[in-house]
Amino acid sequence: MDFTIAAIITIVGLTTPILLAGLGELVVEKSGVLNLGVEGLMLVGAISGFGVTVFTFNPWAGVLGAAVGGALASLIFAVLVLQLNSNQVATGLALTIFGTGVSSLIGVNFTGRIVAPFGSIFPDALARDPFWKLFFGYSPIVYFAIIMVFVVGWFLKRTRAGLILRAVGENDLSAHSIGYSVIRVRYMAIAFGGAMAGIGGAYFSLVITPMWAEKMTAGRGWIALALVVFAGWRTGRLLAGAYFFGILMALELYAKAAGFSFLPSQFWAAMPYAMTVVALAIISSRGTAGASAPACLGKPFTPST
Amino acid sequence: MRYKLEKRREPSMAMLVITPVASVIVTMLVGILAFDALGVDGWAAVRDIFLTPLLASHKWQDVAVKAAPLVIIALGLSVGNRAQVWNIGAEGQYVIGALAAAGVGLAFGQAGGFFVILAMIAAGCLGGALWALIPAVLRTRFSVNEVLSSLMLTYVSLQVLGYLVGGPWKDPNGRNFPATAPLPEGQMLPALDGSTIHLGIVVALILPFAFWLLMSRSTFGYQVRVVGSSPHAARHGGFDAKQTIWATMLIGGAMAGLAGSLELTGALHKVDLGFASGYGFTAIIVAFLGRLNPFGCLLAGIVLAVTSVGGQLAKTTVHIPDSTAGIFQAMMLFLILASDILIRYRIAKRA
How far apart (Å, rounded) are the C-alpha atoms in residues B216 and B222? Predict the structure, then answer.
């Protein structure tokens, strides 16, 4: 029982960053834009969240800082792809390279510093109780991520703004011709995606290991991108997929801890990435994912021609 | 006065050449201002990163050694990018190529010579190509996006490297350090006396001509360009898109593997945990800065190598972290992508 509870808590922790970043990217892609810069945005979020927390001693301000940092960085991408119609794949890659560089440049000043981990805000009687910690023992970011799954799902399906966003992603020319600003909608979607990736990154630097380390997100931004494809651009399946990947990553930790020495530790470390490829192959080959991809995904918006 | 963008009748060749040069210059100017604002001597930082490696002759060999893998990988990637095939896992293909070459070298023991080295390099090309074949098959058979699969496989390749150099291939006389034993002399590429200039650099200088012939003088080059620019026309003209994906991915992988094996036999002479130093990612910037043109890749590879060497230099002279060079490299890529629009559009005064 104790082991099961500990395992679930580990899985929830590993799932949260990719869930946040994946939700953000899902909204971006629903508006018809492919932002491959998620990994860079997460790193920018990790360092800005950490930096703000060091100065303010307030992790809530840190999370806000991470969201703002991620959103600002994503606006560089937005200006290039929306205003100058640059290639989205290449611009997203540039954003990741840029985010990696900027975060390590800023991070030089923060190396070796630590902050208090941004843990549970519930009273210890609940947060540290051997059983109730299963529900109350998490950082507020964890609850935020799960709430956001439902908020984003409701926004996309039930609100007018969500309908417009989906229309822009499915048929930008029609949305434009009935008077919606395709560019403005996409700006907002990209900024939202940046903010969510930033918060996902801050989960690394404020919760998992409350310190800064270069490239500390270790490729999770790319897994978040795969997650969106895996989920077929649906929020419910994104939640399920994120937990599937969370379990895979937890398996790595437990296999190492249990000393499964018949397989080298590198086998377990490679597994989440290898399984991502396998999962993408299974999902993509069924054709269901391809059918639900937004029709304008990755294409520049050129109304005059 | 307001300005607007006006579509050109034909893409501007002048802008194709001017914009990369302008991107480098603007990056330098922004760098000077940004560093001054941060309280560092901006001119000194930019001078050391962009100019000193070119002006100081003792730095030339460092630039050449760093430029060679960048140019070779970028040449391969630019073929794929022209066909809109996005292989961003060159780093992994470079690693697997180097491991394949190292494995062949180990199999020969202390034996060396021309044919052993040739076998190692051939294994490198083959290893890189096979690693790139995985995303190619996944794309054509299962319609998996090659961006994600090729990148995921880079993470896998790093674990393969970690396993081999820390386990079966670990140097028995290496004080338990995770690295292969240094290559015997006979398995090293010849180098100029008293320098680090090795034969791989000559390869990097010759290959652009081969790629120029391939891309502008062969049916294959024509096919790649048609598939990339107008898929519908390509299908109409009987060009097979799947075949193009396969071919361009294999070329990209083989070149990355070649670069890995040349780096092993020519420069580093062993594989350790630091072997993957990001050439595969930087080469993506090289390909774009070089406008996907073989000779452009050669020049852009030198520029990026200069900034890498200069970044190390600036770390000691003006005490800025070496990640700064990465920011400059990203800024160049942003600017080149931003200025793409000037090739097809002109800025005109609004009436």
Answer: 7
What backbone phi and psi angles, to 5 degrees, belong to B136?
-65, -45
Pick the residue of A43, A95, A273 with the most B CBs within 10 A to test the interface with B by mutation.
A273
Dihedral sign for Cα A263, A264, A267, A269, please: positive
pLDDT tens-digit map of A65-96: 999 999 999 999 999 999 999 989 889 989 99
Chain A residue whose CA is closest to B168: A264
pLDDT tens-place string over residues A135-169:
888 999 999 999 999 999 999 999 999 999 999 99
**Chain A contacts of B281, Cβ < 8 Å?**
97
Residue B179 three-state SS: strand
Q: Is the ipTM of this structure higher than 0.95?
A: no
Q: What angle do CA B136, B205, B259 make, to 5 degrees?
A: 40
Dihedral angle sign, alpha carbons of residues A249, A254, A257, A260: negative
Band of pLDDT at residue A305, cut at 50, 70 and 90:
very low
A48-51 own/partner pairs: CB under 8 Å, 24+ apart: A48/A106, A48/A198, A48/A202, A49/A198, A49/A199, A49/A201, A49/A202, A49/A205, A49/A206, A50/A110, A50/A115, A50/A202, A50/A205, A50/A206, A50/A211, A50/A212, A51/A106, A51/A110
Residue B86 to residue A89, Cβ atoms within 8 A: yes
Selecting from B88, B331, B337 the residue whose C-beta is nearest the C-beta of A86 gives B337
B330 and A264 within 8 Å at the Cβ level: the answer is no
CB contact under 8 A, B337 and A264: no
8 A C-beta contact, residue A143 and residue A14: no
Q: Print the domain residue range for B260.
A: 3-349
Total domains in the fold of chain B: 1
Domain of B198: which CATH number? 1.10.3470
**Cβ atoms within 10 Å of B282's Cβ, excluding its own:** 27
CB-based contact A105 B142, cutoff 8 Å: no
CA gap A250, A109 in Å, rounded: 32
Please indicate if any CB of chain A lies within 8 Å of the CB of B153. yes
A267: number of Cβ within 10 Å: 16
Look-up: residue for tokens 């021309």? Answer: B114
Query: Given an 8 Å threshold on Cβ–Cβ distance, is A277 in contact with B324?
Result: no
What are the Cα distances from residue B118, in Å, to A182, B65, B75, B122, B181? 56, 20, 21, 6, 20
Contact (CB<8Å) B285/A222: no
Task: Give me the residue label for tokens 């697997």.
Answer: B96
